[in-house]
Specification:
The protein is an alpha/beta fold. The protein folds into three domains: about 110 residues, 2-Layer Sandwich (Alpha-Beta Plaits); about 140 residues, NAD(P)-binding Rossmann-like Domain (Rossmann fold, 3-Layer(aba) Sandwich), CATH 3.40.50.720; about 180 residues, Rossmann fold. It contains 13 helices and 19 strands. The chain has a seven-stranded parallel β-sheet, with helices on both faces. It has a five-stranded antiparallel β-sheet with strand order 3-19-16-18-17, sandwiched between helices. Strands 5-4-6-7-8 form a five-stranded parallel β-sheet. Helix 1 runs parallel beside helix 11. The longest helix is centred in the last third of the chain and has 21 residues. It starts with a strand and ends with a strand. Bound molecules: 1,4-dihydronicotinamide adenine dinucleotide (NAI). 1,4-dihydronicotinamide adenine dinucleotide binds next to helix 5 and helix 7.
Length: about 450
């Protein structure tokens, strides 16, 4: 793993041997700064090895197999020692949430080009270390948007009709048939806090049910359909019959719905939180529900959630009438898993074929154009002063004609994409790879 020196600059990670990867359509050669430059060799796409662990959805295999890659799948996660063994020979690694990708494992990943987290979270991966090894990581944060939006709509109706209580009564042998406190949602107002991917989908679906839709967002957002922007959070809370939260967890959203905000809500309104547990003050919500100030709530996310399946979950919300509790499953559907498999696999293939890092969680993002009649060099380097002038000198001395160049940086690494004449690309690649500051240099042609 790379580390930082006394002034916070990146220090090169331990040296790795070079690797060469190529495929039939986009051949590519990878070199690292530290080792002698190999003879330019290439091998077909069928020799790109993909290892998918933790039962990643079959849709991912389809994408890789269509490219002609070799795909191996494992049902389980591997522990660190086993991963260190297996990671040495793979070019693309796919994991879900249980595999810990540590600096130790990454230091063995001599051939690894890119890593896919076939899930939403990426805490299980040492992202900084992956970047310092020149390995971009991709996930699929929006593959389950629709799944969440559908559950919100279902729960809005279920709360209005007290479905959970009616069902529990019958399971426990009580027949309670009454229209009291049961409502249609048509004509009611739904307030959406956080009008991003999920919030906008909810707005569209709710309008189809005949609801009025208000939204509040800190960013300026274009209204979908007849949805209307509220003037403030307080305005939205005071005008909505149902309030649904779709914000990320940030310092601003932590505890954003507390006692004061609950008091701003209409008497008899309903609250839904399928976003992040920290957004709502749970004891305050339990208090408002027990006091009858709110008619019901649906909660899918909690400030502290068990790591795995557990029989010991407790919450102040348990036992309160018309409160639907679900174990963080809003985004968990077969369709979402399939989408995740396909979307992450497509991002990995695109990176291998073109160098695109748009959507990567640990790399400067670039979206280079389709490569035509040129060779493309991809250089990952430590972001220290003077890198670009060293690279420019190499290019100038080679008399290379640069067709296009994109540089994107973050505080620790820089990522340079350069399209240039085929005749000189190999020479430039070799010189670039020899620079002390280079982490990884790859050519696509
Ligand atoms: P997104 O990033 O597309 O949208 C979030 C929106 O919230 C953005 O428009 C942003 O400007 C807005 N926002 C941020 N801070 C705000 C504030 N203080 N006040 C008002 N608006 C604010 O995110 P997406 O995909 O719509 O996800 C929303 C939430 O849903 C996230 O917290 C995510 O973790 C959660 N989620 C939960 C799932 C579950 O299984 N329960 C599954 C998927 C996502």
């Amino acid at each position: 793993m790379g580390s930082r020196d006394g002034v916070g600059r990146c220090v090169a990670p331990p040296r790795r041997p070079p690797d060469v990867v190529a495929d039939a359509r986009y051949r590519s050669m990878v070199t690292t700064a530290e080792m002698p430059i190999p003879e330019q060799t290439s091998f077909p796409r069928s020799r790109i090895r993909v290892l998918l662990m933790e039962n990643v959805h079959a849709s991912a295999q389809d994408v890789f197999r269509a490219e002609g890659y070799q795909v191996e799948t494992l049902r389980e996660a591997l522990d660190e020692d086993a991963l260190r063994e297996r990671i040495r020979d793979v070019h693309i690694l796919g994991i879900r949430s249980r595999t810990q990708v540590t600096p130790g494992a990454l230091s063995e990943a001599r051939r690894l080009l890119t890593l896919g987290a076939f899930c939403i979270g990426t805490n299980q991966i040492d992202l900084g270390s992956a970047a310092l090894h020149g390995v971009p990581v991709f996930n699929a944060p929006f593959s389950n948007t629709r799944s969440v939006a559908e559950l919100v709509v279902a729960e809005v109706i279920a709360l209005a009709r007290r479905v959970a209580d009616r069902s529990r009564d019958l399971h426990e042998g009580r027949w309670r048939k009454a229209a009291t406190s049961s409502f249609e949602v048509r004509g009611k107002t739904l307030g959406i806090v956080g009008y991003g991917h999920i919030g906008t989908q909810v707005g569209v679906l709710a309008e189809a049910l005949g609801m009025q839709v208000l939204y509040h967002d800190i960013a300026s957002r274009l209204a979908m359909g007849n949805n209307r922007s509220a003037t403030s959070l307080r305005d939205l809370l005071g005008r909505s019959d149902f309030v649904t939260l779709h914000v990320p967890e940030t310092p601003l959203t932590r505890g954003m719905i507390g006692e004061r905000e609950l008091a701003w809500m209409r008497p008899g309104a309903y609250l839904l939180n399928l976003s992040r547990g920290s957004v709502v003050d749970v004891p305050a919500l339990a208090g408002a529900l027990r006091a009858g100030q709110l008619r019901g709530a649906a909660v899918d996310v909690f400030p502290a959630e068990p790591d795995g399946d557990s029989d010991t979950f407790t919450s102040e919300l348990q036992g309160i009438p018309n409160v639907i509790l679900t174990p963080h499953v809003a985004g968990s559907t077969e369709e979402a898993q399939e989408n995740i498999g396909r979307e992450v696999a497509e991002a990995l293939v695109k990176f291998v074929n073109t160098g695109a890092t748009a959507g990567s969680v640990n790399f400067p993002e670039v979206e280079p154009p389709v490569l035509r009649d040129h060779h493309r060099l991809l250089n990952v380097h430590h972001n220290v002063p003077g890198v670009l002038s060293s690279i420019n000198r190499i290019v100038a001395e080679s008399n290379a004609n640069i067709e296009g160049q994109i540089l994107a940086t973050d505080p620790s690494i820089g990522y340079l994409v350069m399209d240039l004449d085929r005749e000189v690309s190999r020479e430039v690649q070799q010189q670039m790879a020899l620079l002390e500051t280079s982490i990884r240099t790859r050519a696509i042609y």
